[in-house]
TrEMBL record:
Active site: C96
Reactions it catalyzes: 5,6-dihydrouridine(20a) in tRNA + NAD(+) = uridine(20a) in tRNA + NADH + H(+); 5,6-dihydrouridine(20) in tRNA + NADP(+) = uridine(20) in tRNA + NADPH + H(+); 5,6-dihydrouridine(20a) in tRNA + NADP(+) = uridine(20a) in tRNA + NADPH + H(+); 5,6-dihydrouridine(20) in tRNA + NAD(+) = uridine(20) in tRNA + NADH + H(+)
Keyword vocabulary terms for this entry: Flavoprotein, FMN, NADP, Oxidoreductase, RNA-binding, tRNA processing, tRNA-binding
Name of the featured protein: tRNA-dihydrouridine(20/20a) synthase
Broadest EC class assigned to this enzyme: oxidoreductase
Source organism of the structure: Jannaschia pagri
Positions of the record's site feature: Interacts with tRNA: N93, K180, R183, R298, R301
Entry EC no(s): 1.3.1.91
Length: 330
């Protein structure tokens, strides 16, 4: 399957959340959805030598690396490292509004420097070979007028060689709002992003922001080539991912008929992690929302979160927590 087809639905890169254990869990529920890493800074890889941040399991594919940075040559070197390790895509972050990211001069602040972004992606594309380089951006920042800024931004990065872009349909306010507030307070402008999809038919544009159900995903796909889901896919992953392969990608079946099946499918991954000296909670913290809205969900969360902190906690904690919910939970 072409990567653009996988990008029909993707799970957003989310700091402290979309690590390799989270991606392993999402992958057991959907074989087709495109998954992203947490953002990794190019400087950490190139200057800091932190190449362990690129570790992932082949079972996670298709998986994309998101990079943060604004130095074209440094981003190119980081892209080359990602390609060497087998990532299916390298994505440039032009959307994160946090103070730390701004001080490093990357993320959403780059919406103000489209020429620099174009130089960055051009160098990344040169380093990537056949691996696609993509961008995730906002509709604008601060006092910019999105109707003017966004089409100009998209045209510049398209002319630099980018063919796939995810647009978070909100402005980012770099001063006065926290990163959390920037995910909720600026109003969503889906219609503007829809107009960009019409204006740039040669681009594969995905829409992101405030999307919480698979029904909403299907609705957006009437206007867009792709949809990216963030927090909803983390807090209630089964609601987004467990039926995605059949409903969104047209597969004949989904890999896990029930949420119980999804939990049990994680047992080999958890056992391998424990055998390697890892802690149970490093994996199960990403599974607390498995039964969101289902009978027994509170007992599942409590048993799993409390049990995972016990010294030497093992797979028995998972089975104990699973006994709190009925096997019919779908």
């Amino acid at each position: 399957m072409e990567l653009d087809t996988h990008a029909t639905l993707s799970v957003a890169p989310m700091m402290d959340w979309t690590d390799r254990h989270c991606r392993a869990f999402h992958r057991v529920m959907s074989r087709r959805t495109l998954l992203y890493t947490e953002m990794v800074t190019a400087a950490a890889l190139v200057r800091g030598g932190a190449v362990h941040l690129l570790d992932f399991d082949a079972a996670e594919h298709p998986v994309a690396l998101q990079l943060g940075g604004s130095d074209p040559l440094e981003l190119a070197r980081a892209t080359a490292l990602a390609v060497e390790r087998g990532y299916a895509e390298v994505n440039l972050n032009v959307g994160c509004p946090s103070d730390r990211v701004q001080s490093g001069h990357f993320g959403a602040v780059l919406m103000e420097q489209p020429d620099l972004v174009a130089r960055c992606v051009a160098e990344m594309i040169n380093a990537a070979g056949d691996v696609p380089v993509t961008v995730k951006c906002r509709i604008g920042v601060d006092d910019q007028t999105p109707e003017e800024v966004l089409p100009d931004f998209l045209a510049r990065i398209r002319d630099a060689g980018v063919r796939r872009v995810t647009v978070h349909a909100r402005k980012a306010w770099l001063q006065g709002l926290s990163p959390k507030e920037n995910r909720d307070i600026p109003p969503l402008d889906y219609e503007l992003v829809y107009r960009m999809a019409t204006a740039f038919p040669d681009l594969h544009l995905s829409i992101n922001g405030g999307i919480t159900t698979l029904d909403e995903v299907a609705g957006h796909l009437r206007h867009m080539k792709g949809v990216m889901v963030g927090r909803a896919a983390y807090h209630d992953p089964a609601a987004i991912l467990m039926r995605a392969d059949t409903r969104i990608f047209g597969a004949e079946s989904d890999p896990c008929p029930t949420r119980h099946d999804a939990v049990l499918a994680m047992v080999p991954h958890i056992e391998a992690h424990l055998d390697a000296g890892g802690k149970l909670g490093q994996v199960t913290r990403h599974m607390l929302g498995t039964f969101a809205g289902q009978p027994g969900a509170r007992g599942w969360r409590r048993t799993l979160s409390e049990g995972a902190t016990r010294p030497g906690a093992g797979i028995d904690v998972l089975h104990e927590a699973l006994s709190c919910v009925t096997e019919a939970a779908a």
